[in-house]
């Protein structure tokens, strides 16, 4: 009786499927810890990603504060360089004025001495006196030139030192600014919604 056999086999297959489903359901109910662990794992991922996003947002704020600090440092550097340059020029100007004053006094004193000597020696020896006066004036002027050149050399060295200091500090600030720019890009990515979901996906 083929009809009875087919019916029997179909019945057995359906019974087996139902039994398998029941067994799977019973197994799942019998292992509630596995389900709980899976739920906790997902919740932990959500919590961890949210915590990372909050940390990234805090880092963005801190980096912005550091960038503001670099802007202030650049401004202060300009002020320091300006003050040092002005001070160096003031020192040079004061030194030059002092040298000029001393030179003027020396020339005036030499002229007075020459006039006194001429009144005592008379016109007979005036040529010799004038030659001596000329050499004395030339020596005074040469001495002033040496002093002035020395002051210019000192000023030039000071200005070179200031320029070197400025270049070194600007390079350091630029390097720090570049580093903060890369850190900011990374922190902004991690603090955004896209970065949040990307961290969930691992």
Question: What do these coordinates show?
Answer:
- The protein has 202 residues and is mainly alpha-helical.
- It has one domain (57-201).
- It is built from four helices and no strands.
- It has helices at 2-30, 32-121, 126-191, 193-201.
- Helix 2 (32-121) runs antiparallel to helix 3 (126-191), helix 2 packs across helix 4 and helix 3 crosses helix 4 (193-201).
- The longest helix is centred in the middle third of the chain and has 90 residues, at 32-121.
- It starts with a helix and ends with a helix.
Give a quick rundown of the structure:
96% of the residues lie in helices and 0% in strands. The protein has helices at 2-30, 32-121, 126-191, 193-201.
